[in-house]
Amino acid sequence: MSDLKKWLQSCKVCPNFCNVNRLEGKKGCCRTASEIVISQSNLHFGEEPVLVGKAGSGTIFFTACNLECIFCQNYDISHLDYGKFVSPHDLTTIMLFLQQSKAENINLVTPTHQAPLIFESVKMAKKRGLSIPVVYNCGGYENPEFIKELDGLVDIYMPDFKYGTNESALKYSGVKDYTEYCIKSLVEMQRQVGSLKLDSRNVAVKGIIIRHLVLPENAADSKKVIDFIANNISLDTYINIMDQYRPVYRANEYRILRRRPFRYEVEEVIKYARKVGLRRIC
């Protein structure tokens, strides 16, 4: 058994710490056991320009999630579990096909809960000639001890930093201690890959990209997120302050989430990020 698969025996892959034996078919909070489940794979042009380049990001969307965000814009995949089972060999073949299709990178979307399985396929793909960057595109609720296991396997980390307080994370994403685990994981990611590096075409080759989605009425405590990045990661951090929140799925359960953020709310976060010295704001 591989070292990564051992994390599934009494699952501690993410901070939900379900402690179930997924290798025996048991499922934790993520509703997955020991099989790879994906919803789709394609050349995707909706990511950050530094990932898309000219040919697109070779994106693989993984089914289910270790978070329960009530406003998830991909809720059919993450909550309703739309997808299909694929073998490790199939996933390797998908990665190599995307590379053959001139993808700029292999973009693993929502990989956290399936990561021990996914990276067995990444290892196989690298042995078979995969040479483009591997992107770990996650929700930020990571176990930093598991992230250490990915050192050398991930070229670009792209975590969300969703909330500046645990209270908001528990309320809107159903998880405990989000902020602490996100912070520790981001520090480890930065240690591994450093600030974002671009090639001569302005396409990302290595480093960290942090995403933060602005919610209405400061529901995400955005300035606390910005402060941590500026003070503990790097002022050279490439950060995407996103304005595309819209009320979907169960967002209408909370009054303040029933509308999109006003433009001034987004601009206030961007201005604050510039004020504290962040200089690579997407």
How would you characterize the overall build of this protein?
By secondary structure, the chain is of the alpha/beta class. The protein has one domain: TIM Barrel. It has 9 helices and 10 strands. The protein has helices spanning 49-52, 75-78, 88-100, 115-127, 144-149, 166-173, 178-193, 222-233, 263-275; strands at residues 36-44, 57-62, 84-86, 106-109, 134-138, 156-159, 197-198, 204-213, 238-242, 280-281. α3 packs across α4 (115-127). The longest helix is centred in the middle third of the chain and has 16 residues, at 178-193. The protein is globular and about 50 Å long. The model has no long low-confidence stretch (mean pLDDT 97).
What is the helix tally? 9
Quick one: CATH class?
Alpha Beta
Distance between the terminal alpha carbons, to the nearest Å?
A: 42 Å
Low-confidence stretches: none
The dominant shape is globular
Write the CATH architecture name. Alpha-Beta Barrel
Q: What oligomeric state best describes the polypeptide chains here? A: single chain
Please identify which CATH superfamily we are dealing with: Aldolase class I
Count of DSSP E strands? Answer: 10
Q: Give the domain tally.
A: 1
* SSE succession: EHEHEHEHEHEHHEEHEHE
Main β-sheet: number of strands, strand sense, barrel status? 10 strands, mixed
Our Rg estimate from Cα atoms comes to 18 Å
Residues in helices, as a percent range: 25-40%
What share of residues are in beta strands? 15-25%
Mean model confidence by pLDDT: 97
